[in-house]
Design brief:
Radius of gyration: 21 Å
Strand content: under 5%
Number of domains: 2
Structural class: mainly alpha
Strand order of the largest sheet: 1-2-3
CATH superfamily of the largest domain: MFS general substrate transporter like domains
Distance between the termini: 9 Å
CATH architecture of the largest domain: Up-down Bundle
Number of strands: 3
Shape: globular
Length: about 450
């Protein structure tokens, strides 16, 4: 069953003026030979988040935090792994690409399963898979089995974030939804921040293999997850109505939906190319061009991550207060400006400040995608939409490090970073012409 809320394209239809509530949803069967089904209503949001909402937020944020920790640890470990296995620069970068390509497959598959079987159940599976195969990286004997472990870990990596965002969106009030999604993204930043500080401290003592063992922490998290956290009510209601069409078909069911889905794909791809391209090469860029040691590179990278965290928090506040589109417009324009400015900085102090400002705008938008996607698509396809768009973006973003490496070898790292500005221009156009405003919308059943 596809359900549309009042005045919300592409899935939502006009509300019936004879009804008192503006939260009515017209639910109809997709088969052409069936009549219009009964009118269904989604329960109104509570004024304050309840215990389930808060627990959903903590579980999702912690899960994404461990994911962020693992990702940046791999970035810092590439040099040590390259020495151990005698890897070329291309092979070392392919470990990141393999992780991200695995995330695409896992994200799409687990998104389907989450919409069919439950948010909490499938989120548990992704956490276990991710944790176990991250731990197995510690016993790898060479490039090929390490690549295999990283790719399989990526399957869980890809499913975790989108399912968590769907879970949070379905349990938090509409007026706080963007802020709640930004808090999930902040969990990922906390993991990255921990990796930036702990890797220089732990790596000399436990080596790169020991750092992967630390990544097994998600398995512990998964044990109590299902008992503590029930499925969202809106999901259970959607399951009771039954699925009406294949999830991917619902994402491209008509012209308005196709336009919106193309816009979301562009936004997610630009986000991931910018983020993975910068975060993969930033420590190396600071070390090789500016002569910073591993410790100082970690500090400079950490300041950039702090800027990213501030940006995510600001974006959530802004999107809930003034709207989703104004927030995206502001951050996209400033991201284009700041990557150009940063590529021209030379001295350490300006690099420190510029990195924080660049991070604020480049990654601040991460707090908005979960809310926007959740409000654009119905419950029966919400997790699929989250994971499909975000992980297609990851697939494209996985080539970001390779593209920047190629451009850096042919021209310079400064030139490669500056060229990212053109991508944020594309982002602005997609938001302007393809993405509708969703502020204040109640979720579509």
């Amino acid at each position: 069953m596809i359900c549309g809320a009042a005045e919300a394209a592409p899935f939502q239809s006009k509300s019936d003026p004879t009804r008192k509530s503006d939260l009515t949803h017209e639910c109809f069967h997709s088969r052409e030979d069936e009549p219009l089904a009964e009118i269904a209503e989604v329960l109104p949001d509570e004024e304050r988040p309840d215990r389930q909402a808060k627990l959903s937020l903590w579980v999702s944020a912690i899960g994404f935090g461990i994911e962020g920790f693992d990702l940046l640890v791999l970035v810092f470990l590439l040099a040590s792994i390259s020495v151990s296995f005698h890897l070329s620069t291309t092979r070392a970068a392919s470990l990141m690409t393999g992780t991200l390509l695995g995330a695409v497959t896992g994200g799409i598959a687990f998104g389907f399963l989450s919409d069919a079987l439950g948010r909490v159940r499938v989120l548990t599976w992704t956490i276990v898979l991710f944790g176990v195969f991250t731990g197995l990286c510690a016993i790898s004997r060479g490039y090929w089995d390490l690549l295999a472990y990283r790719t399989i870990a990526g399957l869980g990596f890809g499913g975790e974030f989108g399912i968590g965002l769907a879970l949070v969106a379905e349990t938090w009030p509409a007026r706080l939804r963007a802020r709640a999604s930004s808090y999930v993204a902040l969990g990922g930043q906390a993991g990255i921040f921990a990796a930036a500080f702990l890797t220089p401290v732990l790596l000399p003592h436990i080596g790169w293999r020991g750092m992967f063992l630390v990544g097994m922490a998600p398995v512990v998290l998964s044990f109590g997850l299902r008992r503590m956290l029930p499925e969202p009510k809106i999901f259970l209601e959607a399951i009771a109505h039954g699925r009406t069409a294949a999830p991917v078909r619902l994402l491209f069911k008509d012209a308005a939906t196709v336009r919106t889905s193309i816009g979301m794909l562009i936004l997610c791809c630009v986000q991931q190319v910018g983020y993975y391209g910068l975060m993969t090469w930033l420590p190396y860029y600071l070390s090789m061009r500016h002569g910073l040691s591993l410790t100082r590179s970690a500090v400079w990278t950490s300041v950039t991550v702090i800027g990213m965290s501030c940006g995510i928090w600001i974006f959530g506040e802004l999107a809930d207060r003034v709207g989703r589109r104004p927030a995206f417009f502001t951050f996209q324009a400033m991201a284009a400006v700041m990557v150009i400015v940063y590529s021209r900085l030379i001295n350490p102090l300006p690099l420190l400040v510029g990195g924080a400002l660049m991070g604020l705008f480049v990654n601040g938008m991460l707090g908005g995608y979960g809310t926007l996607i959740s409000e654009l698509y119905p419950t029966e396809v919400r997790a699929t939409a989250q994971n499909l768009f975000f992980n297609v973006g990851r697939a494209v973003g996985g080539f970001g490090p390779l593209a920047i490496g190629f451009l850096a070898a042919r021209y310079s790292f400064a030139t490669a970073i500056a060229l990212l500005a053109s991508l944020y221009g594309l982002d602005l156009l997609a938001t302007a012409f393809l993405i509708p405003e969703t502020k204040g919308r109640h979720l579509i059943l």
